[in-house]
Amino acid sequence: MRKHVAEFEPADVDLFVPKDDAADPQLSIVIPALNEELTIGRFVDWCRQGLREANVRGEIIIVDSSSDRTAEIALSRGARVLKTPKRGLGRAYIDALPFIRGEYVLMGDADCTYDFRELRSFMERFRSGYEYVMGSRFQGYIEPGSMPPLHQYLGTPVTTWILNFLYGSRFSDIHCGMRGITLDALRRMDLQSQSWEYASEMVLKSVRMELRTAEVPVRFLRDEQGRLSHHKRSGWFSPWQAAWINLKAMFVHGADFFLFRPGLLLLFVGLLLTVPVSLGPATVGPITFSLHWMLLGLVLCVLGLHGIYVGAIARLFSDYSGETTRCWLKTFSYTRSVVLSAVVVAGGIGLGIPLVVRYIRSGFRLSAIFPADHLAVAGLLLVIGGFMNFTFTLAIHAAAANLKRR
């Protein structure tokens, strides 16, 4: 039976409801499926068994883009079926969001590689107040032959380590497909990923949102005989593409890590090369730091300021609490920051005037280097820094004024 349930449902999806549809579910099991007629019946049975053993009222939503009998079989076994166009794994969860009725959401795969008969540990964490519950194959059981050695010993551990390093998290298996989240947190998370990278986006946004997070062990099983995984169906390049787009998600959503902290380091080194020689060359051991070193310091300072300012703006887009935005707006109060920028630019121009005067008097030629030239480079740094501070102030206030959270 087709049913209209959501005011804001996508126009190109259809919901089909089974005869014995669950009423007022607490847990929604939301599963994308693409041509899984070989396993979908057994998978739905596993889910129903898991719901009974976890003592929780639940619904099973199969987000189906198949050309085989997957939808028909799932519906006959008691699952809701949301028929959608084929447009990506992450997009399946976005399409399903308006139709989810449970307070808690459990995600996974329809291929019976994750054992959905074991839901109790997820519900125990939810009932204890956790908002995001990650499954971990490495803390649980990995059946021999279920995971390619390249994934098990290189791909997953390395990308997990990278994300933990970037975000200060402690996940053990960021690519585990079996994971749970409260419906409220899922809505606030505002997923954007259309494909495999949704997994990394969810993990890193859970850190950004400071969700109360737990890990539970899960069982990962081999594909049923005769079934090919989606990676194998798509060809040898598919796992590499999935890894690349997951790394892209980490880097895009963690842009401030590659901008703000490196920017601070570059600015610090640049100032070390610039400030001490502002009045003339300085010798440290066998090295004489002269105007050429000062110009290098100027370049590093500019790169550093750029990284700091752009990284600060990137942080606004991942600020779910609003605290970071308020802090930056307070630090760069519009009037104070604009006045400071004007004073710094004026000071820099003042330091450069003696060099300009000497250049004009010398017939527009400079044949020698004087201490005033060092001050002029320092003045140039002040002009650049003041102007960048002014543009950053405008940008951060404009971003804060127009940034809206769902």
Tell me about this structure.
- With 406 residues, the chain is an alpha/beta fold.
- The chain folds into 2 domains: 240 residues, Spore Coat Polysaccharide Biosynthesis Protein SpsA, Chain A, CATH 3.90.550.10; 148 residues, no CATH class.
- It is 52% helix and 13% strand.
- The strands form 2 sheets. An 8-stranded mixed beta sheet has the order 1-4-3-2-5-7-6-8, with helices on both faces.
- Strand 3, helix 2 and strand 4 form a beta-alpha-beta unit.
- Helix 7 runs parallel beside helix 9.
Question: How are the elements arranged and paired?
Answer:
Layout: E1 14-16, E2 27-33, H1 40-53, E3 58-64, H2 70-76, E4 80-83, H3 89-96, E5 104-107, H4 120-127, E6 132-142, H5 149-167, E7 179-182, H6 183-189, H7 198-208, E8 213-220, H8 230-234, H9 238-253, H10 255-274, E9 282-284, E10 287-289, H11 291-317, H12 323-331, H13 334-361, H14 371-402
Parallel strand pairs: 2-3, 2-5, 3-4, 6-8
Antiparallel strand pairs: 1-4, 5-7, 6-7, 9-10
- Average predicted confidence as pLDDT: 88
**Portion of residues in helices?**
40-55%
**CATH fold group of the largest domain:** Spore Coat Polysaccharide Biosynthesis Protein SpsA, Chain A
Largest sheet: 8 strands, mixed
**Whole-angstrom Rg:** 29 Å
**Level-1 CATH class name of the largest domain:** Alpha Beta
Offer a quick outline of the entry.
The chain has helices spanning 40-53, 70-76, 89-96, 120-127, 149-167, 183-189, 198-208, 230-234, 238-253, 255-274, 291-317, 323-331, 334-361, 371-402, and strands at residues 14-16, 27-33, 58-64, 80-83, 104-107, 132-142, 179-182, 213-220, 282-284, 287-289. The protein has 406 residues and is of the alpha/beta class. The model has no long low-confidence stretch (mean pLDDT 88).
